[in-house]
User: Fold Purine nucleoside phosphorylase DeoD-type from Muricoprocola aceti.
Amino acid sequence: MATPHNAANMGDIAETILLPGDPLRAKVIAETFLENPVQFNTVRNMFGYTGTYKGKKVSVMGTGMGMPSIGIYSHELIQFYGVKNLIRVGSCGATQENARLGTILMAQGACTDSNYVHQYNLPGTFSAIADFTLLKTAQEMAEAEGFPYIVGNILSSDVFYTETPEWKQWAKMGVLGIEMESYALYCEAARAGVRALGIFTVSDSIVTGEATTAEERQNKFTNMMKVALETAIRL
Ligand SMILES: O=P(O)(O)O[C@H]1O[C@H](CO)[C@@H](O)[C@H]1O
Ligand SMILES: O=c1cc[nH]c(=O)[nH]1
Assistant:
């Protein structure tokens, strides 16, 4: 049955889904890589598709920007559509000099400045981590393809345009890059006992000022898309 944000019926969405923030990146992934893609959602233009990749059923759907947005979509995918493996395929800003444009960052862990986890009333601090099987498989795929990648900690931030350069403090703690969703995705997955991973292509460097265009962020991050899809078919 449809939800307030998703027109799909039960069974329309695969157990494994790729989740870009940008719904047009979802369209690109579906049209470039999936065989026989069928669109299951257009509500709020948050495009979602299911097709097959090398014969295995895989879905892809946009999640929007920020933790409230991915929180809604991932919660519905897990709780109402039975999705078991959620792989975010995002863009991020690098906070370390060795994370050059185009490098794939894999979020072994996610830090945050958000209150998302407060809903669980935990008596301490929750460490949001990737599913180990997803992470290991994605790392092996990137290694096999010879794509540049780094595995480590990232920051999921509520703020894109910050008043002060807090990123420097996170960088001192080894944080590789900043994006805006994975902490909430890891929380939703942990709470439901399903698997999640965030991987990102470095779209800009907060350290050096290098940046890609919006067109490149939508269309050109194919290494990351291949890593996610090759991971999806090995689960
Ligand atoms: O490219 P996506 O997947 O949207 O990810 C990053 O880009 C957006 C900001 O430009 C935020 O959503 C951030 O997490
Ligand atoms: O969230 C994001 C995404 C790309 N670049 C940034 O600086 N932040």
User: Anything to note?
Assistant: The first strand starts at residue 16 and ends at 19. The longest helix spans residues 67-81.
